[in-house]
Amino acid sequence: MDNCCGLLTDQKEPVPLKSIEVQLEVKDHVATVVSTLNYENKEDKPLEAVFVFPLPGDAAVCHFSAQIAETHIVAEVKEKQQAQEEYDDALSSGQQAFLLEESDQSPDIFSLSVGSLPPGESASIRLEYVTELAVEADDGLRFCLPAVLNPRYQPQGSQGPSVQVTSVPASLVPYSLSFSARVSSPHPISKVESSCSLEPLQYLNTDQTQATVKLAAGHKFDRDVELLIYYKDAHQPTAVVEAGQASAKPGSLMGDPVVMVSLYPEFHQSVMSSLASCGEFVFLMDRSGSMGCPMNNSKPQETRISSARDTLLLLLKSLPMGCYFNIYSFGSTFEHIFPTSVEYNEKTMEEALKKVEKMEDDLGGTEILQPLEHIYSQPCIPKQPRQLFVFTDGEVGNTKEITGLVKKNAGSHRCFSFGIGEGASSALINGMAKEGGGHAQFITGTDRMQPKVMQSLRFALQPAVEDISVSWDLPQGVSATILSPPITAIFQGQRSLIYAQLARQSSEATDGSVTVKYSLAGHPSQNQLHFNLKPAEDSGLIVHRLAARTVIRSLESEQRTDGEQQDEEMKKKVVELSVQSGVSSSFTAFIAVNKDGGKAVQGPLVRRNIPTPLYGVPMMAMACSYSAPMACLAMQDLSSYAKRMDYLSCDVELSDCQSIHESRNMLSNEEEDPLPEFLPRHKDPLLQLVSLQKASGCWLLDADLAAILKKTSKEVEKAKPASVNNEVWASILALIWLHGFKMDAKEEWELLTLKAASWIKAQNDRCKALPSCGASNVLSEPNFLLAVSSRNVRPTRDRRFHTLYDPPNGLCENQPNRATLRKSVSPRESSEFTQRDCCLNPGDRPTPPWAPPLATKFYTALVDFDFALSHAHLMIFAKCL
């Protein structure tokens, strides 16, 4: 091998895969991906190259072909065992063959075998799939091209063979990636963002409904390629009708028209604001070794497990009083904080937080099945709907067992899943949420975990949608057969997809409608969409293939829940539909054999495993022991992988790793007020403030709060109006600080501030009959909004404030509304109102003419307090009565 050339593996073997070219076409919320893999054999022997790689778990792989010199071979979909036998027969006879197959255990892993590539010859493999784009919390559409495949942990006793992956650190991946995207939509494209470096967005027309974007050169395989696409006025209900395939049998899925309906339910604001005050919240946290990996390379000190701890803090502080909760953590074994779920109060919350702060990535492998079985074995608490939150980096090999268990117990809970870090299994994360009637989120790149998790908590606190039904109003002679599984969950702003096969006879009518009815918080609701039955042009059977994928996944799921023995009848249906539609399944594979003339390939066949990128950390950190970042590689449970990676020695002693870890957590030498015992981990002032909040929602007026506000205890107490309750004053100050300094993190603290406002209101209700009560004295007005703003702030004294009293509307958003102000002031005052009147110098302390006396008193106290503000708008409200 000394005379070999080209790219090499870690064993100095040539790698036949040289480059990957990816072309993405997005039409509204559907993506078509074409990947071209270019191989070249520079050895003197014929090669078999095997490449195991990830794809989105909900992708419909619908095309596979090979180009060898002038010969173009299009693969066929066949039953998997038959395809494997044909592939082996072709190799044994010296023919060239290509095999693409989906993993038996996880639909997001594929294996591509390129057989009998002669010396000096090149081959291009073309792979095509279609997929829907998920809607993110900020209304962006998320496309993810998985470029990282981490080793999947296979628990002992799991069904089926493990997934064999040859992986190397991202810096050693021996092939290149190019990526380009074309986006088109009926709505203008506002922007395209990515965690990877992109070339500037290029618009193709004046109305900006078409654009192209490319991945910048030199992509490093340390992350998936993720695009976030934003449309203006997006997420409108749509229906696309696609004509059947001319060559397919009428009455079959591919022969009849298929309609794809996209609905975006909008709930009434009264329902959205009435968050549940009950429920059983069970949090399941991954503590396997791989959770010690950094969240991203730009912040290596922030590991997955540390981010998960911070997220649990926010979750626990945001839970409503009177609910029930428990926290499980798992690795090779599992633990739980309480024997059974307990009622949420100050004592149980503090006990849980102390244990959460001690959680590390020290439980070994990723065996999620056992803790799930234990959770489901616990009886549900009457009138407390169970909500399960699962946090994992998704590096498991028994995906189908896990999603099957969730589906089996779907009637007793809702499951919200979170994929942490690069390479998390989309099949696992999406599968658990789909089968559990919840919502899935992925935290990758520079994403913060907290806002995404808090959005899911909002979903969990919303009333469950019940009695969902779908009805069609179609012309005479036209009928619809729904292909999608029944809709089990509907969330505000999230897309609901329906696929239906249309059987039609001759009819002059061209319009139809679909109606989704449901009950929300006891109120009947419905969403209706009218659409044209005329088929769309040049759709390329995208809708049919997505529909076929939906049916195939549903059938495969039924097999898992019917028992250990596979239902042969169901398998037969899957194979038949997979072959008919050309869409892959776990029971079929794509096979292509070059049977054209020419001599058979001579000589022994050499197998080459193409390495896939492994998300990890710098080499020095990778050399740490099991409990340190070495666990990122999950090598302790994959001995064969460890042997392939033996050049990564473990020379660094654990003490060295510990000293590095300790140096990252050293506190500054500046003197600070003492903080609670669970606080030192949190350098973020937001988390420090959140950690001080009580389970009831209030804060205490103490030195810890003063330190976060950058004040002394004496300054905090001196500014307090004499008759005001200490806890009320502390809570008001904490909420003002959040609105002033952390508006960019509003999604993270919004729920806990609602709880605080409810607590303040409760104090007022309790104190109405007591004139001496502090809460009553401060909050006796019917509805008031105290708004404090700062513009162009300079150090210390250049601070400006304004107070707004708004009885008719109660709560004001972000900017002072001039129309709202006019409701609260006289005509003369309204006409004389200017921005300068709103921005008052605290040294002058004038009284705004529209402010009621008590609000003015409170305003004056805040001016005296002299906050060191730095953000443009700072608000706090208390809604009374």
UniProtKB/TrEMBL annotation:
Domain VWFA: 280-457
InterPro entries in the cross-refs: VIT, VWF_A, vWFA_dom_sf
PROSITE patterns, sorted: VIT, VWFA
Domain VIT: 1-131
Stored SUPFAM superfamilies: vWA-like
Residues passing through the membrane, by range: none
Superkingdom of source: Eukaryota
Protein name: von Willebrand factor A domain-containing protein 5A-like
